[in-house]
Structures are given as structure tokens and as C-alpha cells.
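Translate sequence into C-alpha cells.
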Amino acid sequence: FLFIPYLYCPRCQVPLRLDSASLSQGNIQKGILSCECSYSATITDGIILCENFAEDTPFRAFENVESVMAMKEQFSPTYRKLITKAYVWMYHQITSSVNEGNCFMTGPFTFNFLLEYMGKLGKDNTFIIIDPSLNRIRKLKKYLSSRNYTFIFVVGKPEDIPIKHKTVDFYIDDYSTVNSLFTYNHFATDQIAPLLKKGAEVVGIFTSYKNAPKSIFNFKKDHPDFSPEKMTFAGLKHHWALENVKITEVKNVGKTTPGEIHFPQNAPGEVIEVYGYHGEKV
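Result follows.
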């Protein structure tokens, strides 16, 4: 309910009209959001549904991708350790500036950073979780229902998110860029950046397939429009820079070993590198 002033038309950047609202314990359970420009979204079971949402995820590269915590279980022990190391590094990049009352956002196609570190980020913060898949958001909402935090759940593509520009203090890129490239062949940085305040921090994880050309090409079986040549850290840095987000710190946390199957599309003998990065909206 307290987030209503931040519900804005993503096209016109004016406050959305809320009709037919149903409230329960301070939360909006049902309602219709609309703008004179014809933009509309609905609120169902406390979830904001944009017009262009999907029942199931369009990201098809892994099994159990709709699950909440099981995604990493499909990776090798070495790859899981690299992700854990990246998460620790990401958390320590932002811990000194985390204060009560901030707005965090993560998604689309996010992994588990927010779920694992939420208890250390402050109960008075607001957490916006976005994903194209209604099934995944429903599962996340159910998983988080016992936590006394403020959550805003949005189902839809980044360009349709009905949130006022310059609202978000921290954006957690927990594989969101990587998985958006696999799915939409697009960085989505131009859609996320306007939502960030000046001085907002971006912290994320990125995987380099420089030494795994066969592995990265295997993703085309699930996403025929995917362009492997876009999957570079230089490309990520460039696209953030176009949106006035300056990457200030990068950490190579390590690489997988050639003798193991570290993810389903892995070509035998190839390795991938895992990076953490930290930036600021200037």
C-alpha cells in the first residue's frame, strides 16, 4: 500500500490510476492500474501483472528453472563454489552503504543472491522482484511469505515495469544480464537504468565464455535468436556506460575446471570464468 506513490506509467512517467482495489493487512491484493496512454496492468493475489507476461519462463536453458533455490544444484560443485564466492564479494561491495529504507531491485531471471542475503540487507528496505514468468513469481512469493519484509512482485518484461524513474537504490544483477541475453538477445540495461537513482549502486555476476565457444553456441538450441558474440564483459560495461552507469570494480573469482560437466550446455574440456562487478549510476 505504501508503494502506491511509486507506481508510474513506464511510458508517460505519470502516476497510474488504481481502480477496483482490494486491501488486506496493508497490502493490495487486487486492482487495476491504468494510464490515459492505454497502458494497463492488473494486481492479482498481491502480484503486479503487466500485459506482456508469461505463465512459464521463456528462459529454457536449464531444467527446474522455475524453482526457487534448486537452480544451482544443476551446476558442478566447482561452479557452485564460484557462484558462492561471487555472492560474498558482491555483498561486501554494498554492505558499507546499506541503510534502512533503501529500495532494492532484482530480475529478470534472477538466481539466489537476494534470497541468501536478504537477512543481512535490513528489514526496513523495499525489495522489488521482477520476472517474465508468473509461475516463478508465485513460487518466490510463497517462499518469502513468512518473512516480515516489504516485497513488490512484478511479472512482465523490464520495459513494462510500472515503477517511477529514479526510485531504486540498489540493482542486483544476479545473472539477469546473462539470462536476458540468452532469452531476448538484449542487455536490458537501457530499461533498468532509468529506474535507478543518481548514485544508485549496481552489483552483479557475469560469466565469460571466451574459452568456451562450443558451450556458448549450445544455448542456440534453446534460443535460436541468441547471438553468442554479445556475451562479453566488455559488452556489458559498454551498455551500462551508455546509461550513465560506471563500472568501478571487477573481480575475477575463478574458472571452472576442464574435466567436469559444470552446466548442461558444457562442451567437454571447455571452461568458463565467473566475474563479479560493482558500479554506480552517475
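Note: The CA atoms of residues 59 and 183 lie 6 Å apart.
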